[in-house]
Amino acid sequence: xxxxxxxSEEVVESLRRQFRWxxxxxxxxxxxxxQRLLDRISxxxxxxxxxxxxxxxxxxxxxxxxxxxxxxxxALPAEQPAPSPVGDAPPMRVDLRDSFRSRPAVLDFxxxxxxxxxxxxxxxxDYDERAVLRAPHGELGTDGPAVEMVVLDEQPNDEPTAxxxxxxxxxxxxxxxxxxxxxARESGLVVSARQRQAAYIARRIRxxxxxxxxxxMRIHDPDTGxxxxxxxxxxxxxxxxxxxxxxxxxxxxxxxxxxxxxxSSEGFFAATEVADMMALLKxxxxxxxxxxxxxxxxxxxxxxxDADLARVRLEAPAQVGPRLYDAACWYARGGPDAALRQRVSxxxxxxxRWRRAARTRxxxxxxxxVYRETGYLAFVSALPGGRQRRANLLxxxxxxxxxxxxxxxxxxxxxxxxxxxxxxxxEAGQDWAPAAADTAENAVRILSxxxxxxxxxxxxxxxxLNQPFNREDTTGPCLFxxxxxxxxxxxxxxxxxxxxxxxxxxxxRRRTRAL
Length: 515
What we know:
α9 crosses α10, α11 packs across α12 and α16 runs antiparallel to α18. A hairpin with a 3-residue loop joins β11 and β12. The two termini are 33 Å apart. A 4-stranded parallel sheet has the order 8-9-7-10, covered by helices on one side. It has 20 helices and 13 strands. By secondary structure, the protein is of the alpha/beta class. Helices cover 44% and strands 9% of the residues. It is globular, with a radius of gyration of 29 Å.
């Protein structure tokens, strides 16, 4: 496309006539190619751009925030009159500084912090008077400080193992590893640093909501403006990258009896309720898979106990064979315990009825029949994070409907093809995002800093601040840069690699951009 625009002014003029105005959002994240496309199709006075260089997060996608900085440098403040006719005038800059989502005390903290660390040398832009955030309304105060910083003093661990060093981009304590420390091992309480952070947050949340050790915390209601006790739904835990970390926070908060909602704690297929349903579908397709069958028999859709499965397997004679399904069939015919024999027989009968339905009915109808017959939707709704769990199950049903509509005759629409499709998806390292649950649920939200943009919470915990930057893009045998081209590591006569001068320059530039 860009090559065509560079070679044909006729095409350029044709496109320019089609667009009266050009609007660009998140302009700090465009790359050089996108910038050239915009330059070719836009005129001198019909472009409106919105961006904030401080929010640039897509360097790994080759975004170039300096392109936006260069535009800002040429722009005139809105209050300064243009020195020439509109078509030839420099761009006009309007700074949006009023923040309606935060207290003045919190904004004062942010301004003081970023005023020190965001400089021209580090951030490419100074956090000057034009960047300072202002609260247009008065102070909406509560008792106590607006911002606290809590340092959990971790004991240093032993030297990290090779595996720990390979994961050094994701440590969560000051030791550079998330493994249990020596004191924890000696006490027999083996927990990670991330779990200790989550436990501290859980204690603070319970103290705020339930008033442990003092009166409950009070905040201004965003709807009425009146002071009221804080609720779980007013609280958020923000993480820089929750994909691999939120699960610990979810588990610890739930153990503390705190309702919690997270759409980032795990992938869609890793959610317990979805994993149970996938195990059921795989069992209906092939009941001779021991792991899936065991998961189904002890799940809420069937309801056998672990002790029941152990007895079925241990009391079956050797000639029955090693499969759990064969042992269950044997026990249903003549197991020694009449009550257990009845439960196993009913379980196999239910699975058999669903297997017959899988051959004669649509996949979506089969899943809905399971939900209705077992009351599984109501069961998961009563669990902690029930709205999220229910939303995940409804999303599985919707995806089954979509699969049957999109699959052609060659691919097939059967249960087997659906399972094969999901397994290929997971083997490729892909997953579906968890369903969007009703955010009106009175539960603590756990989400990424990026996802929280635009939302308002009465209390925010910003966790995991001690994690170091991910610097993987400054290592490797070859580094690429748009301006410096390619940097290579060079083999010396002593059979070791040393970085070339170009390699070191590119690595240094990438470190600076990351900061």
